[in-house]
Amino acid sequence: MRHPMLTALSAILLLATVGSLSPAVAARYCLQGRSWGYPGNCQFQTLQQCRATASGTGSHCGVNPRYAFAHQRSSRQ
């Protein structure tokens, strides 16, 4: 019998690895602030989504550096 915790951990690690290998599809905006660090919570595709989440928290939104770098590299080619 498989351990459910091991299966869940394997799935999480797989998703994290796939996400880290494809910066071109990285979310565009990050929620940033004292509690988030840098680059922050980078799960927002639109600035409006990020700002709605940041509202009233003292946090702000910035461009995801992974997205910006991937976009900059593809523009040069």
Number of DSSP strand runs: 3
N-to-C series of helices and strands: HEEHEH
Roughly what fraction of the amino acids lie in strands? Answer: 15-25%
Query: How many structural units, i.e. domains?
Result: 1
Shape: flat
Unreliable segments (pLDDT under 50, ≥5 consecutive)?
none
Descriptive tags:
49% helix; 77 residues; alpha+beta; three-stranded antiparallel sheet; 3 helices; flat
What does this structure look like?
This protein is of the alpha+beta class and 77 residues long. It has one domain. The protein has three helices and three strands. It has helices spanning 4-21, 47-54, 65-76, and strands at residues 29-33, 37-44, 60-63. The chain has a three-stranded antiparallel sheet with strand order 2-1-3. The protein is flat. The N and C termini lie far apart (51 Å). 18% of the residues are buried.
How does the SSE layout of this entry go?
Layout: H1 4-21, E1 29-33, E2 37-44, H2 47-54, E3 60-63, H3 65-76
Antiparallel strand pairs: 1-2, 1-3
What would a concise description of this structure say?
The protein is of the alpha+beta class. The chain contains three helices and three strands, in the order αββαβα. The protein starts with a helix and ends with a helix.
